[in-house]
Amino acid sequence: MTPDSDTAPALQADRVWFAYRNRDWVLRNVSLSILAGQHTVIMGPSGTGKTTLLRVLAGILKANEGRVAVFGEPTSGFGQRRLSSVIGYIPQQLGLVRSLSALDNVLMGSLGRLGVGKALFSLFPRAETDRAEAALDMMGIAHKRSEQVFRLSGGERQRVAIARTLLQHPRIVIADEFASDLDLALASEILMRIRRAADKENITFVMSMHRLGLARQFGDDVLALKDGEIVPGYIGNQLRESARAEASL
Amino acid sequence: MKTSLVLPATTGFFLLAVLAHLGFFDLERLKRGVRNLGILGSEMLPPDVGILPTVGAALWETVEMSFAGTLLGFLASLPLSVLGTRRLFSSWVSSFARFIAAGIRTVPVLLWAIIFVILVGLGPLAGTLGIAAYTVGYLAKIYADLFEGTDPEIIEAVQSTGASKLQLVRFVIVPEAANAILAQVLFMLEYNIRASSVLGFVGAGGLGFVIQIYLQSLDYQRLATILLLVLVIVLVMDGISAWLRRRYLLAAHTS
Fold first, then answer.
1. Separation in Å, CA A23 to CA A20, A26, A27
2. One CATH from 3.40.50.970, 3.20.70.20, 3.40.50.620, 1.10.3720.10 for B50-253
3. How many angstroms separate the first and last alpha carbons of chain A?
4. Among A14, A238, B5, B175, which is 20 to 30 Å from A35 by CA?
5. How many contacts (CB atoms, under 8 Å) link A and B?
6. Does the distance separating the beta carbons of A108 and B170 come in below 8 Å?
7. B171 contacts A104? CB cut-off 8 A
8. Minimal Cα distance from B159: which residue of A?
9. What is the chain A residue with the closest CA to B179?
10. Is the entire prediction scored with pTM above 0.90?
């Protein structure tokens, strides 16, 4: 980390442009700055580039122009292992291995710390197994540790995915449409657990979401993305309207 | 003529021309064939079960050859198919691995058996190696295609934990394809049991040698016994693989 890593924003995008192959721009001149420990929600209509933005921020896609930096350092020079020690990424479909157990999936969060050929026979260091069990416990599904993922419910899978990312010990977690297909009460319970875990380890959270109520509950800051551009004030109006609607009920 | 009829009409015409060329309209010959089928059938019955003790050893050898050949070929096909997965390796590496698999697959199993008879001499060792070789070529191709179909989101998610390629193969690619991997090995084992029963024709061990002797001496009653034996083994194999599928594959279908 550079000397200014304490003062620099946790995650920063500076005039980022992105297009798949030669198609039209998906992201146009996106700049954002997220402070350490903050929880940021990105909202916007579907097809507007939320997933692309998160994947560029996570270093999975490289911006065509502009730069992404974590704690002041551009991620373009990071190798996969270095990147994984800073950023954890949870895709929309969670990316769990269905035929393996919940515990095995969580243990995968430790792979970046182990040697490239370690754990091939499923022999994880005792300390990692303990941490994985603790992470499952924190997400409230320790009792399902040996269950194969395809036997778990949607909400349980979300918890496993979060536990895997927690085991990775990243300083930033980026999650795409997290908890969006769960019912409100369940989604809100899971988000509360995440909040608790994130605050405990001072993790910066960035999440895309389409439900305003949840966004308000979870996000310290809400950014709106529309047609590949950050729109200032766009969500503010929507938030005010939904607050008014709820107040009149 | 409507354009939609062009393709079926051309295909039909071509089929008729080919059949005529192959002798399918030589009714005399076909009639003779049916007559001979009756004679062959009557000469095969009843099967001579007296040879069972003698052919028992050859039968067991066939089972051994196909079992060992399939497993050895399976083990060798795994690294080759991983190298042939374009998602994991550069197109140079994967194209080269796929080229090798295609090369191996071009040679029929009987020809592989002949090559190994030349290399290691007559007997079941040559047959086993021949089966293993053909199995590598077939499974490496099937598995590489299968591995490439792995859900990219899962690969990305686990890659972003910092997992190495080797760890990705172990924790994502193989577990995600586990059902199909098992199903294909079982299919290959069944295929190899049938295939290995003719490898003896070229001196590569197993039942084929006995089949050849009875064929040449027109001893059809004994030949019938051997064909029945092959049928029994294939049925037993079917049963075992059906059981394995039920035991290990069904669970995943509920997801």
1. 6, 8, 11
2. 1.10.3720.10
3. 50
4. A238
5. 95
6. no
7. yes
8. A80
9. A99
10. no
